[in-house]
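Entry:
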Amino acid sequence: MSAVDVDERPLRARFVTLDAAVDPVAGVVVYEAKDPGKAVDDAIKSGSPAPYGAVLWDSATDVARALFRHDLSGRRVLELGCGCGLVGVVCAVRGARVLCTDVDLHTLTATSRAAADAGVVVEVAAFDMMGAEPLPLVDGEAATDVIIADVLYEPRLAAAAARRTIEAVKRGARVIVGDPDRAGRRDFLRLIKDAGHDVDFGATLGLDVATGTICVVEPR
């Protein structure tokens, strides 16, 4: 099933500033659910996954702004739990080949629309981070960068994010995790450190240390 197979979720446009120091201001448009409450109700009624990606979260914006400062030409980016698709679209704007994935198919529709508005190509696919399937390839090759932005909502998701992080770094990918200190952060860090990686959330990718929203796990 693809994003075009699901009933349309009414969307609203939101402009996200990436660099206010240039004229005109650099930014992209993303699409959130017009009525997030209804999105939640619809998911409950249908037994669908929780629509976390119905709105844009601040830590995804932090990751996107940090990556916007870098030339990503030649990079292959896989985003897990892409939500509105901001990070993936920004990576494509900066020259990367991008595959955005999510378990909520409505978010893939929103991501494709944002990519089209930005004039870039972003592939989208349904993928359950908590499933058993291996990480998908980007253009037939392993990703050089895996993005996980604001998914550490609770222990099960945090454990899945840790498992996927370890899987990605074993393939040689850099993993960039954004999190505003949600309930699963401690579990995520514990599992990553148990796997032998000395990491934490802090000043990375040029962000102010005070934000504490980005963790980068590098391949060995």
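The two ends are 36 Å apart (CA to CA).
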